[in-house]
């Protein structure tokens, strides 16, 4: 219901708040609330009911004669035209081209796009998890071979580790490509080439609000996992200090660390689809300006952070032949990422409240 009231406020905000307009607004609000209640009683979901009410009562120009405000709207839409003031001169280097006018987005298009994003929500999440887990084999196999647990040569252990790493990276890339193909028919939405629509924006915000609680829980669990991820490494290193199997168990602790980080990312990303879709649908042409990147800050950082950390680990291990100590980059990296993720989400929340 709050979405309907917000949409109604947006409809009337462009017109002078005369007593007749205020009365018409109250009358229209009653009609919309009655229609919403009837649709809910018929078994419609809240999203469907809100979308139907906005479709039926969303054009004020069509409803104006019935509400008795046709003359008020006509007067407001045809203001006097005073002589325009000369525009201030702008230096050519600072001048910006006019934003192209794109066709508006319909509610049906927005709902189809959101449904595609919902169905594909696990693919990017699983792909990111595979990227994070990809170094697990190259971490454990050489250490297991050196400890005598794995009866193969050192070269074979390194080869198998690299092979598994590449297979997991390839599988993750294929998941991302598959998810991108699903939204290929909505390219103009992805690129922001559509005019902002109050109807679509109201519906999208309602969709995001319905899933924000689940996203908030996922964020809390993910941050907890990221902060606790170094515990297995620290525990195995301290409890088995001086043991012949310390190196092997420490490497297994690093794998557990990667698994906890991957689980947190997969959980958070799979629950963020509604808010991400709402930001795309509500932005319109603004998302194509390049002034402000509306993508998830944590997602952007994670896409670079973990491959970079893996590269540091591999370079240290191969060039310095230091597989027994190179694993230390993972607990340190996990703690740093937990702090970065918490700060990034705080920054996102502040940016959206501005």
Automatic annotation (TrEMBL):
Keyword Cell cycle assigned to the entry: answer is no
Keyword field:
Membrane, Transmembrane, Transmembrane helix
The annotated region (Disordered) lies at 76-106
Identify the InterPro entries for this entry. Answer: Perm_prefix_1 (IPR047928)
Question: What residue intervals traverse the membrane?
Answer: 125-144, 156-179, 218-240, 246-269, 297-319, 325-347
For this entry, the protein name equals: Uncharacterized protein
What species was this sequence derived from?
Answer: Leucobacter massiliensis
């Amino acid at each position: 219901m709050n979405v309907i009231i917000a949409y109604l406020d947006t409809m009337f905000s462009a017109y002078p708040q005369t007593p007749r307009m205020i009365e018409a607004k109250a009358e229209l609000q009653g009609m919309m609330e009655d229609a919403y209640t009837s649709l809910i009683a018929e078994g419609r979901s809240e999203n469907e009911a809100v979308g139907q009410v906005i479709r039926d009562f969303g054009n004020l120009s069509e409803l104006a004669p019935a509400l008795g405000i046709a003359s008020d709207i006509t007067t407001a839409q045809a203001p006097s035209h005073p002589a325009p003031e000369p525009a201030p001169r702008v230096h050519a280097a600072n001048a910006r081209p006019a934003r192209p006018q794109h066709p508006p987005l319909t509610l049906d298009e927005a709902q189809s796009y959101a449904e595609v994003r919902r169905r594909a929500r696990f693919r990017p999440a699983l792909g990111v998890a595979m990227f994070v887990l990809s170094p697990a084999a190259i971490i454990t196999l050489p250490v297991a071979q050196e400890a005598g647990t794995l009866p193969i040569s050192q070269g074979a252990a390194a080869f198998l580790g690299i092979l598994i790493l590449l297979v997991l990276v390839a599988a993750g890339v294929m998941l991302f490509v598959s998810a991108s193909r699903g939204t290929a028919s909505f390219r103009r939405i992805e690129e922001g080439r559509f005019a902002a629509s109050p109807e679509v924006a109201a519906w999208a915000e309602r969709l995001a609000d319905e899933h924000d609680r689940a996203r908030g829980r996922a964020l809390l669990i993910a941050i907890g996992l990221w902060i606790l991820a170094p515990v297995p490494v620290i525990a195995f290193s301290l409890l088995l200090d001086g043991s012949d199997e310390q190196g092997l168990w420490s490497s297994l602790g690093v794998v557990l660390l990667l698994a906890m980080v991957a689980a947190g990312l997969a959980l958070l990303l799979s629950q963020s689809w509604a808010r991400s879709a709402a930001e795309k649908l509500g932005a319109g042409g603004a998302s194509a300006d390049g002034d402000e990147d509306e993508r998830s800050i944590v997602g952007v950082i994670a896409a670079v952070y973990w491959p970079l950390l893996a590269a540091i680990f591999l370079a240290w291990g191969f060039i310095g032949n230091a597989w027994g100590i190179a694993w230390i980059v993972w607990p340190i990296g996990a703690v740093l990422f937990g702090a970065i993720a918490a700060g990034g989400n705080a920054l996102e929340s502040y940016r959206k409240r501005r």
